[in-house]
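@channel anyone free to eyeball this complex?
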Amino acid sequence: MVASKPGRRCVIVLGAVAVLLLFSGSWLGWRSLAAASSPADVVINDYKFGPATLTVPRGTKVTWTNKDDDVHTVASDGDPKLFKSPALDTDDSFAFTFTEAGTFKYFCSIHPRLQGSVVVE
Amino acid sequence: MSDGFDPAAGPSRRKLLKCMMWGSAGVLWAVSGGVPQPFQLDGEALAAGPAPGDFTFMQISDTHIGFKGPVNPDPGGTLKEALAKVAAVRPAMLLHTGDVSHLAKPEEFELAAAIMKGANLETHYVPGEHDTIGDKGKSFFERFGNEKSTSGWYSFDQGGVHFIGLVNVVDLRPGGLGYLGPEQIKWLEDDVKGKSASTPIVVFAHMPLWTVSANWGWGTDDAAPAIDLLKRFGSVTVLNGHIHQVIQKVEGNVSLRTAYSTAFPQAAPDTPGASPGPLKVAAEQLKSMLGVRRVDVVHDKPVMLTDATLAS
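replying in thread with the prediction:
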């Protein structure tokens, strides 16, 4: 397409905008992909672990964050414990890296009705 | 305190109306020998000192020192208010049914001990699950435990009553409720063996020794075998905490009752949309949902419990 001088400038500007849009679009896409592919977060709220069952690839670091008004802990079932957090007050976090495959059940050791599991594939 | 309810004469209209008024405020009925007796939650009687010759003690619970939630950023302040109410009664001693601290931190235990010391009262403690986080109660027992006990649970005799402090917050099992464990139940069996059935028994433990709500974890898995060991006694009073509100169950001669917290309220069991955590209430409402308990032991009469809020 042949354009006059002001028109060409317009194309350049439009092109730049398009490149910017493309870039920001892919960046946003990358971000949401990253969020979707790292659900290695468990939120504790209203006396529940969310998600109650989390499936992750081997080697994933899982982080539990307490968003509840009450204090909770994260402790693996069985004895000896594979992992056990200290008291997690509101907004406190605890992380554990799962290096072996399997289903790992855990609970809050002070409110034992709160239960969850991590499936490591 | 009983308000002179005479089942034979029937309540006067005024008393009936008063009872109904309490009904909305939370009147509870104690059953002794099959005769229900009302007692009020709002304790005018609390201000009166003990009657001569009677044995009066008190219970506080769930002081949660270290709690910083918006419903009560100053649990130390409300504990001091609770202790002022206790001091006004001049009881023989005080029971603390656990959750002394919020996170079992040394500084929380230290502050709690300093405030409790201000009451200048002999105090017997059992731990709550908040006191045993991380070390199964080791640091709690070092500071608040019974000197003669190596296990955490213990008993003693005072004012003609046999007191039994139980621990049902350690070694909790996934999916379970409170837990006493076979070792403690065996100890209880030996402890009450040979005691006359006429000895009044007072048991105190943090989590309710009956299932108030399984969904909310408000109960003790192996409470039944423990309670069974006490059924032969003529008067058994079980004092619990944990659920931050007064709820009672009566089973024959066994009367079980939970207590107010001095720190923050919790919702009624299984309230839809609520959780067993701290209940957010308006600042002006808070003190009407916190409180202390007076216990009067009068010879040959049922043990009398009076719950009073910090607003009363």
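from a first look: The interface with chain B takes residues 46-47, 68-71, 73, 77, 86-87, 89-90, 105-107, 109-113, 115 of chain A (CB under 8 Å).
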